[in-house]
Each structure stands twice: as C-alpha cells, then as structure tokens.
Design goal:
about 35% helix, 13 strands, five-stranded antiparallel beta sheet, alpha+beta, 11 helices, about 375 residues
Length: about 375
C-alpha cells in the first residue's frame, strides 16, 4: 500500500501530519490476524483451555467473543449504567413488523430518526438510519423474517469514540487502555466532478475505493454542488471506511471514574469496548455529556491500532496485551467457579453469526 501523507486532524491540537493509511491498515484479515491466532493458541495451551477468555465476561454468551446479543448486554445494566445508554427497543422480524416496531418505539420513548441494526452482528453490518415509517418498513423487510433487530435513539452528538475498559475481578477499579476517536470520511463537491471522480481524487479513498463504492453505487454519477459535503459512511467501523485516531492523551481521571461507575453497574463485566457518542471531546474528558451506543465483550479490539500513525509493532503489542488480559481474567473467573463456553460452543456461535451477517442488508 502506498504511504501518502496528508493532513487528518481528529480535533484542534492533534498532530498535523499523518500517513493517509498505515502500512498494514488494509491488509487481508488472514494476514494481519494470523500471529494473533497463533498467540491465542499458545495461551490456550498454557492455560489448558482455548475458550478461557469467554469466562472473562461470564454472564455474556461466549463472553462477547462472537454470536452474543447486543441488547442482552445492555439489558444487564443497573440504574446508574442505564442513564448513560441510548434508549433502545428490540423485536424479531415477522408479521406486522412496522406496527410492532412503532409500538416498541413508543414504549421505549423513541421517535424518528432511529438507528436500525441487527441484535447479533459486528463491524457495523446492517446498521441503517430510519427517518420515517416508510423507511422503517423497507428497512425491516430487508432483514427478512425471524431476525432479532434493535431500534435505537439516533444520538445527535458529533464525536463517536471507542473506550476500551479492563477490570480484573480482584480489582476495585478498572482502567481505560484505549480511547479512539472515529472520524467519518467525507467528499466535498466542486460542482464539476462526479461522486466517483471525487472518490478517486481523494488522497485516502482513492487507495481503498472498494470499501465505499458498494454504498455509493446509486450516486456514483451524481455531481455534488460546490461545497456540498457527502459523508461516506454512517457506521463507525474501520472495515466500513471510518478513520480512527488515537486519543489516549484524552484519558483523564474524571473519564476513568465515570466509566468505572458505569461498568461496575454491569454484573461481572471485566473486558471490552464501549462505543459511544460525545457532545465534545472536552466534555468527554470531564466524564460527561456522552451516550453509549453499545458495549462489546472479549471479541472487541482496542481500535486505536487503526490510527494511521500506529506502527505494526505497536499494533501487535496492543493486541497481545489485550488478548493476554482475557486469558488472565478468565483464569481468575475460573477460580471463582465460572466456566468457559468451550471451543465447540465458540465455533457454533461464530458460524451462526457468520450465517446471519451474510444475509443482512448493506449498512448506511
């Protein structure tokens, strides 16, 4: 991958120059993750249980490694944690979808626009914005029948962040090991170029056009007016094209205390990433004015590794540290009497999730 330099600022004061993409950012998954899988196997042999990390969050299916219900994690939140979670409703697609969805929205205090997403999934697959009853009808139909979906409040805040949290069972307080700001890439119209031409002219998107083209295909021949901004993705996921910035310098005692109070209110949760939106990064540093989108378990990553400034060595060091922690925490929970899910249960959950995701509609 060509390493072009451009200016990509996460916020005022961020370092001014960064590579457009890192040397490994868009490697095929099987290449990047092979050393991590080998490390997992090594730890599994050492601890005599390849599924031990699933005991790190023992009340969640597979510990949140794969196949878990997003809503079931949020449902465990106590009164304190629930105050920080964006309101949501859950239903299974089938008969009278729209009427049932509207009733569920009313009961949860939701109004349009809302986010529609699968209850089981990852990487932003199938996540879409529903702006009215008509789009909701179409969105539900796109999932087919018998699929559990969530409807969630569309948080109006402009800063999406990933907060990675670890707390060992024998620790009173946990720690934030990663804070990542997620930037939505945008194209700006010049009144002459088509969307496709703008895509291939941008320093970043021209390197990975295949990530954006499927969602933009109906608009590729449009010519946006001069100055008009075209966001390229809604879901804040790296593999869907969002840009990630390492904001570890914004981890403050106030934010850590707030996150601890929230996560201690979710029973036996020890390891995972909080995806949230904040009113501003200044407010986030003060531990206020943010709402949680979802809470991910042991299958989640410390997403600052996808900052273009992160080196391959730093990325692997981060991955090894975090996956090592899942085994250490799992071993402590095992001593408390909790059991891991077992390797076959992990495999079944992964296969079920993979089958579901293959049928989900394209995300916004």
């Amino acid at each position: 991958m060509t390493d072009t330099t451009t200016t990509v600022n996460a916020r005022p004061g961020a370092r001014p120059a960064a590579p457009t993409v890192s040397a490994f950012e868009f490697w095929p998954g099987w290449i990047f993750y092979t050393p991590i899988v080998l490390y997992w196997i090594m730890l599994g042999l050492r601890y005599r249980d390849f599924s031990l990390p699933t005991a790190a969050n023992p009340r969640i299916e597979t510990g949140g490694l794969c196949g878990e219900s997003k809503s079931s994690i949020l449902d465990m939140a106590g009164d304190e944690a629930r105050r920080w979670i964006a309101p949501y409703a859950v239903l299974t697609t089938g008969e009278n979808d729209t009427a049932r969805a509207l009733a569920a929205m009313e009961q949860a205090g939701l109004s349009f626009p809302v986010v529609l997403k699968p209850d089981v999934g990852c990487n932003g697959t199938g996540v879409r914005i529903m702006r009215d009853a008509g789009s909701l009808r179409e969105g539900l139909a796109a999932f087919g029948r018998g699929v559990a979906v969530m409807l969630q409040h569309l948080i109006p805040y402009g800063h999406e962040v990933g907060i990675f949290y670890i707390r060992h069972p024998d620790e009173a307080e946990g720690r934030i090991t990663s804070l990542t700001y997620k930037e939505v890439p945008c194209l700006t119209g010049d009144g002459r170029s088509t969307v496709e031409e703008l895509l291939h002219a941008d320093p970043r998107t021209r390197l990975v056009p295949h990530i954006y083209i499927p969602r933009l295909r109906p608009r590729l021949n449009e010519v946006p007016p001069a100055g008009q901004s075209l966001p390229l993705v809604f879901a804040g996921n790296h593999c869907k094209g969002s840009i990630f910035h390492d904001c570890a310098t914004d981890i403050t005692p106030a934010l850590t205390a707030r996150v601890n109070a929230i996560m201690r209110d979710i029973p036996d949760f020890h390891f995972g990433r909080i995806d949230a939106k904040a009113l501003s990064l200044a407010h986030l540093r003060e531990g206020k004015d943010f709402q949680i989108i979802e809470i991910n378990g042991v299958g989640s990553e410390a997403t600052h590794i996808w900052d273009a400034r992160t080196t391959l060595r730093e990325a692997y060091a981060t991955q090894f540290l975090h996956y090592g922690e899942t085994f250490r925490i799992g071993a402590k929970k095992r001593r408390e009497g909790w059991k891991s899910s077992g390797a076959m249960a992990m495999l079944r959950a992964w296969l079920r999730q993979r089958k579901l995701m293959a049928a989900y509609p394209l995300n916004d």
